[in-house]
């Protein structure tokens, strides 16, 4: 990453040392508040349209959550059709449709390649950079923005709106007030506060009359109070299972953690689990009920319950431990036992805390923005990324929507008269 400096340049991660004792707000052409993927994409779109762009971020460097996501491979998007992609956004699908259509998964892949990063599609259809990390892509992206004249001001925390459309910031050099012709807000949701998305903007927006839906965990683990029986199995995965909640289902994996359950197999069900829906797991999704019943009937009655589950149902130790934890007393009847293994109840005490969630639901209400994602109350101000009220499962859909809404907001802001 480029070195942080103490001067205002068109470089990256630079701070401002010019005097804060000015007689009025500093005029700006285009301001992006928030230096995550949505904000940087908005800045790219604005710069490409010829606008003079400043990005302000309250952290010492930009895109910190993006870099953290890259430590596990940086799932850029998913190699699916536009319709399949749009369908993952639930209640927000219709509002996001034009944005996803403007930057579909294949366009994101092409964008990454255009930055010089080779990508590949995994067996699950997820698209990753060949380097399996975010830092090379981010370096190339920031270099492109720098070449396009985008200035980045770090350690600038937005504190509110001033008179006449001005924006106030707390900076290392004291309070600053700027007056941009157009503004794009991309301050993220409310998870992983230490990386920058602390949700503190919510109170400022609400004080300014902008309706904001309360934040809630998305793609979050579950709280489960395990008995001591489970201690030896904590950290073990449940592989190739199907979770079900309120008519929805998700196939994948989850980990038996010290605090409960977490993993990609559970995350798509977060909207239902947030509402307290009952959760069950099919531990034998590739074995039909009749075949499973027959296998259990044939199992030796001399075997222990654990051995019957291992031999007849072919469960691994973690799955067997889970059955013993939540399924006791085990049915003696093989048919009833088979039914239990196909729908084992998983009692839970709720979702893990908001700050531990991969992403958040809630944000600026869609009723507060027009089709350009401009605020009705401030037509020269746009909102992008996780600040908007949408959620999506993991699998590249989170980053896809962040990039797509950033591009949409940036293009719309670029067309707004200075």
Describe the structure.
The protein is of the alpha+beta class. Helix content is 29%, strand content 24%. It has helices at 37-48, 64-70, 82-86, 93-102, 105-114, 135-147, 201-207, 270-274, 289-298, 305-311, 317-326, 334-342, 397-414, and strands at residues 26-33, 53-57, 77-78, 119-121, 126-129, 151-154, 157-161, 167-171, 174-185, 212-218, 222-223, 237-245, 248-257, 260-262, 279-282, 344-345, 359-364, 374-375, 378-383. Strands 1, 2, 6, 7, 8, 9, 18 and 19 form an eight-stranded mixed β-sheet that branches. The protein has a six-stranded antiparallel β-sheet with strand order 11-14-13-12-15-16. β8 (167-171) and β9 form a beta hairpin. The radius of gyration is 25 Å and the shape is elongated. The model is unreliable at 1-22 (pLDDT under 50).
Q: Could you name the key traits of this structure?
A:
disordered N terminus; elongated; alpha+beta; 13 helices; 418 residues
């Amino acid at each position: 990453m480029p070195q942080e400096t103490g001067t205002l340049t068109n470089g990256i991660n630079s701070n401002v040392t010019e005097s804060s004792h000015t007689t009025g707000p500093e005029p700006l052409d285009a301001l992006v508040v928030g230096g995550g993927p949505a904000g940087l994409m908005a800045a790219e779109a604005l710069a490409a349209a010829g606008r003079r762009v400043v990005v302000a971020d309250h952290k010492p460097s930009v895109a910190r959550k993006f870099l953290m996501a890259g430590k596990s491979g940086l799932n850029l998007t998913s190699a699916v059709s536009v319709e399949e992609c749009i369908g993952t956004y639930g209640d927000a699908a219709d509002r996001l449709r034009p944005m996803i259509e403007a930057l579909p998964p294949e366009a994101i892949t092409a964008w990454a390649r255009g930055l010089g990063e080779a990508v590949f599609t995994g067996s699950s259809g997820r698209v990753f950079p060949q380097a399996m990390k975010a830092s090379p892509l981010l370096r190339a992206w920031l270099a492109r923005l720098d070449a396009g004249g985008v200035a980045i001001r770090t350690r600038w925390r937005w504190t509110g709106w001033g008179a006449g459309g001005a924006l106030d910031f707390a900076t290392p050099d004291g309070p600053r007030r700027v007056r941009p012709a157009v503004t794009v807000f991309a301050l993220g949701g409310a998870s992983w506060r230490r990386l920058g998305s602390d949700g503190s903007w919510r109170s400022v927006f609400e004080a300014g009359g902008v309706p904001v839906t309360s934040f809630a965990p998305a793609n979050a683990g579950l709280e489960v109070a395990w008995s001591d029986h489970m201690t030896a199995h904590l950290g073990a995965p449940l592989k190739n299972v199907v979770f079900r909640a309120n008519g929805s289902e998700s196939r994948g994996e989850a980990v038996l953690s010290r605090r409960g359950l977490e993993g990609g197999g559970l995350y798509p069900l977060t909207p239902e689990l947030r509402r307290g829906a009952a959760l069950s797991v099919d531990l034998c999704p590739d074995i039909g009920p009749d075949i499973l019943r027959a296998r259990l009937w044939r199992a030796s009655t001399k075997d222990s319950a654990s051995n019957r589950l291992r031999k007849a149902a072919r469960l691994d130790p973690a799955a067997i431990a889970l059955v013993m934890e939540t399924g006791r007393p085990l049915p003696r009847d093989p048919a009833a036992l088979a039914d239990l293994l196909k729908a084992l109840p998983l009692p839970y005490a709720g979702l893990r805390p908001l700050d531990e969630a991969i992403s958040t639901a809630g944000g600026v209400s869609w009723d507060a923005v027009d089709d350009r994602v401009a605020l009705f109350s401030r037509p020269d101000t746009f909102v992008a990324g996780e600040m908007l009220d949408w959620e999506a499962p993991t699998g590249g859909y989170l980053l896809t929507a962040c990039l797509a809404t950033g591009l949409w907001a940036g293009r719309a802001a670029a067309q707004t008269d200075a």
